[in-house]
């Protein structure tokens, strides 16, 4: 049974945007004291946000080539290799705009990965894509067979917000087939817990799995229960969502399902 | 609802909430950008303002400084004025000094004047007292005389004597004054005479100095002249030596006496060859006619000293004759074929004969034996000549070469290819560096004997083959080269500019042989050539006119040769006859 590629939902996922209010660190004196507002795509990454704000940062006298820019939410440094939407959902914040602070000094080397540049983000993104491909098909043949142009196009179209160009390339990777092996899935509980990434197959003795089954397998203590809800892209996922469909349509641009488990509140 | 619808609904709600801030965010971003740019501009303006302020400060500083100093012109003027003030002050000080000096002198003068007036007063006072005394005496005497009747007489006597004494006294004072005047005059004269003495003494000294100088110069001049005399005598000796060696360049009047020119250019390095008047006389008739030799005559040549002449011809013998008598003194044999040309060396010790047997032979005249046989030509040798030092011989042949032979080594040291058979050749200078040759192809060619290179080829000079080339005895001062050709003309060619100076021809003159030789007179004033009909033609080189024609031969003339001494002209015709003409200048 082939799974239909759902345009509408896919587009909505891609277009998800977050309003962010970026305040400058008061301990670092700058000529600008007012916060900066920006709309960042949920699928984007923090280094890309830095890049968009480059002109403003330069105007403040920051030399971006020498500085490690990092953000924090309420004192917690934000992992720059996670998509912005995931960071927002993980933070549990409900405020719109999302109030974060930008720092140009004292990069917390012990908490964050080094050198938060766009190139590094691109490398991590491609690594995730390859991982997803491997998990789905058992080889990274599809990714590797993409031309260099196509590989860079994946990232370029993400950074430039080009939906069609992205899917031009990605459809080769996501192309549905019956011989899918494992689900590329990451489950986040809270900031302190390690990320759960387990081998989950698409089918359960021949039957297609739903999200509830998968969660039950991975977190038998939490599921089935009424207090925990899986969230992704800021929406609650119904437990009867077929996992194959979800993987195809609800993944982040790196073809992974990033699911945050949070407390049930309406 | 299906999961899809649920998800779609959730997404839509989410978007509504989260996209509400879209416009605000954009507006905020724009404002932030503007703020940033304005801040930048502000910074730039501040920086510009600062620099402008700094400039302003420096300019105001400079302006103040300039004002304080005053412009450079003002400064200059100020300095000038200071200097002038200084100078004026100095002048004033000097003036004061002179003024004080003058005041002192004035005081001094006043003192002197006072003294003088005092003395005068004293003197006059003395005179006054003296007169007074006399008067008193006289009064006394008069009073006393009133008692004595003889007193008037005595009084008269006394008054007379007083008068006499007074007049005497006046006379004396007059005389004194005159004497004073005389003394003054004499003193003036003395001063003047002393001045004169000093000036005359000075003049005397000067004249003595000049005298000494002139004496010195005269001595030097005498020394120089003495040296010159020495040089002249030395040179004379040398020249005589040279003259004996260089047979062709001697210029002698009859009797072998030198004619000295009055100008001073005569004692330069080259012997002066200019002689005033022509020292040869045109021959009128032969003094001797001889029929000699057993075969045809081809050449005749006078010796370098003029003591003999030689003929050569088809009888293979070279005959030497005494110049005056015309008798045969020697017959030199050894040649294998006829002799074509003869040359004596400058000292007349050797004579060469070139022959149609392709060789040139050199005989020693004292012994009559052959000294050298120069073989090497592959054609008939038609002309040969000694160089001035008698160490080399140049020969020209019908094998189209010229050869230079070294007599000390005995072989040919240079062969010059001439493109055409050579009929006659001559050396153009005393050292033997330049060689002139006349050829069968009507051309004249000049060669450098040292390198063997051709210097010049003169074409178009003649229209027939060149039969004779001879160098003027006056070379390099006169016209240079005489060429004779089968086109029946003789031409004189200037070897410096390579142009034809003169052409000699006559209706009666025809060149009769391919080896017919013409020559200059020893003083260069005439040229002689023999014609095909046996007549001897003589032209004047200065006027270019044909002077005389003497028909004393019957056949084709083969050669003429003028003795370097100038006393005889020898002519030969092919038909064995030789004529000797006396051309000596009878004083």
Corresponding CATH superfamily of the largest domain in chain B:
YVTN repeat-like/Quinoprotein amine dehydrogenase
Number of domains of chain A: 1
Arrangement of strands in the largest sheet of chain B:
1-28-27-26
Multimerization state: heterodimer
What does this structure look like?
The complex is a heterodimer of chains A (266) and B (587). With 266 residues, chain A is an alpha+beta fold. Chain A has one domain: Roll (Ubiquitin-like (UB roll)). Chain A has ten helices and eleven strands. In chain A, strands 2-1-5-3-4 form a five-stranded mixed β-sheet. In chain A, strands 6-11-9-10 form a four-stranded mixed β-sheet, with helices on one face. In chain A, strands 7-8 form a two-stranded antiparallel ribbon. The N and C termini of chain B lie far apart (170 Å). In chain B, strand 26 and strand 27 form a beta hairpin. In chain B, helix 3 runs antiparallel to helix 4. Chain B has four helices and 28 strands. Chain B has three domains: 237 residues; 30 residues, no CATH class; 297 residues, YVTN repeat-like/Quinoprotein amine dehydrogenase (Methylamine Dehydrogenase, Chain H, 7 Propeller). Chain B is an alpha+beta fold.
């Amino acid at each position: 049974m082939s799974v239909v590629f759902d345009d509408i939902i896919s587009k909505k996922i891609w277009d998800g945007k977050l309003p962010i209010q970026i305040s400058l660190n008061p301990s670092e004196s700058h000529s600008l004291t007012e916060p900066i507002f920006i709309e960042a795509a949920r699928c984007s990454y923090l280094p890309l946000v830095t890049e968009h704000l480059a002109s403003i940062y330069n105007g403040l006298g920051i030399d971006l080539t020498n500085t490690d820019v990092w953000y924090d939410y309420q004192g917690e440094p934000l992992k720059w290799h996670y998509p912005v939407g995931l960071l927002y959902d993980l933070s549990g914040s409900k405020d719109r705009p999302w109030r974060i602070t930008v720092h140009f000094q004292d990069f917390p080397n012990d908490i964050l990965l080094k050198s938060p540049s766009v190139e590094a983000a691109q490398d991590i993104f491609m690594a995730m894509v390859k991982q997803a491909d491997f998990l789905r098909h058992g080889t990274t043949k599809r990714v590797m067979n993409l031309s260099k142009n196509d590989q860079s196009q994946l990232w370029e179209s993400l950074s430039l917000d080009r939906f069609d160009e992205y899917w031009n390339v990605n459809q080769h990777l996501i192309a549905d087939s019956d011989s899918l092996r494992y689900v590329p899935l990451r489950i986040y509980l809270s900031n302190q817990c390690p990320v759960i990434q387990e081998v989950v197959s698409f089918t359960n003795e021949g039957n297609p799995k739903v999200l509830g089954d998968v969660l039950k397998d991975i977190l038998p203590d939490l599921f089935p229960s009424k207090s925990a809800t899986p969230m992704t892209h800021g929406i609650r996922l119904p437990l009867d969502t077929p996992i194959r469909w979800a993987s195809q349509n609800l993944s982040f641009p790196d073809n992974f399902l990033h699911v945050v488990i949070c407390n049930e509140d309406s | 609802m299906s999961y899809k619808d649920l998800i779609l609904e959730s997404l839509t709600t989410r978007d509504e909430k989260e996209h509400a801030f879209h416009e605000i965010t954009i507006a905020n971003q724009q404002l932030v950008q503007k703020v940033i740019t304005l801040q930048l501009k502000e910074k730039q303006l501040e920086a510009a303002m600062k620099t402008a302020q700094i400039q302003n400060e420096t300019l105001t500083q400079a302006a103040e400084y300039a004002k304080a100093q005053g412009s450079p012109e003002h400064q200059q003027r100020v300095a000038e004025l200071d200097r002038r003030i200084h100078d004026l002050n100095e002048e004033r000080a000097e003036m004061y000094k002179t003024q004080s000096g003058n005041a002192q002198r004035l005081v001094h003068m006043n003192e002197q004047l006072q003294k003088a007036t005092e003395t005068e007063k004293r003197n006059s006072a003395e005179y006054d007292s003296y007169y007074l005394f006399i008067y008193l005496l006289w009064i006394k005497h008069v009073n006393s005389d009133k008692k004595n009747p003889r007193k008037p007489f005595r009084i008269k006597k006394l008054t007379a004597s007083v008068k006499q004494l007074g007049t005497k006294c006046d006379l004396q004072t007059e005389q004194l004054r005159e004497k004073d005047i005389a003394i003054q005059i004499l003193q003036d004269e003395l001063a003047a005479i002393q001045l004169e003495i000093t000036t005359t003494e000075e003049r005397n000294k000067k004249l003595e100095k000049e005298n000494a100088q002139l004496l010195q110069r005269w001595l030097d001049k005498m020394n120089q002249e003495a040296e010159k005399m020495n040089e002249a005598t030395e040179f004379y000796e040398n020249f005589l030596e040279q003259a004996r060696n260089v047979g062709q360049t001697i210029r002698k009047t009859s009797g072998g006496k030198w004619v000295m020119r009055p100008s001073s250019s005569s004692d330069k390095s080259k012997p002066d060859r200019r002689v005033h008047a022509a020292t040869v006389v045109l021959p009128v008739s032969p003094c001797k006619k001889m029929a000699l030799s057993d075969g045809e005559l081809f050449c005749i040549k006078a010796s370098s000293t003029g003591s003999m002449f030689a003929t050569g011809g088809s009888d293979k013998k070279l005959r030497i004759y005494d110049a005056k008598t015309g008798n045969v003194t020697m017959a030199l044999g050894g040649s294998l074929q006829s002799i074509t040309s003869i040359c004596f060396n400058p000292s007349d010790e050797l004579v060469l004969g070139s022959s149609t047997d392709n060789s040139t032979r050199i005989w020693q005249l004292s012994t009559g034996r052959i000294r050298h046989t120069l073989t090497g030509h592959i054609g008939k040798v038609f002309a040969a000549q000694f160089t001035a030092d008698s160490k080399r011989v140049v020969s020209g042949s019908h094998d189209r070469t010229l050869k230079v032979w070294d007599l000390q080594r005995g072989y040919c040291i240079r062969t010059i290819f001439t493109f055409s058979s050579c009929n006659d050749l001559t050396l153009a200078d005393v050292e033997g560096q330049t060689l002139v040759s006349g050829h069968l192809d009507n051309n004249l060619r000049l060669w450098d004997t040292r390198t063997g290179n051709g210097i010049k080829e003169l074409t178009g000079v003649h229209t027939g083959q060149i039969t004779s080339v001879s160098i003027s005895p006056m070379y390099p001062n006169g016209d240079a080269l005489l060429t004779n050709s089968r086109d029946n003309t003789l031409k004189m060619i200037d070897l410096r500019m390579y142009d034809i100076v003169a052409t000699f021809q006559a209706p009666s003159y025809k060149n009769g042989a391919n080896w017919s030789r013409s020559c200059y007179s020893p003083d260069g004033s005439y040229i002689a050539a023999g014609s095909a009909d046996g007549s001897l033609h003589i032209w004047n080189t200065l006027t270019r006119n044909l002077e005389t024609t003497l028909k004393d031969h019957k056949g084709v003339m083969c050669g003429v040769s003028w003795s370097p001494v100038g006393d005889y002209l020898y002519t030969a015709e092919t038909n064995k006859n030789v004529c000797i003409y006396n051309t000596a200048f009878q004083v």
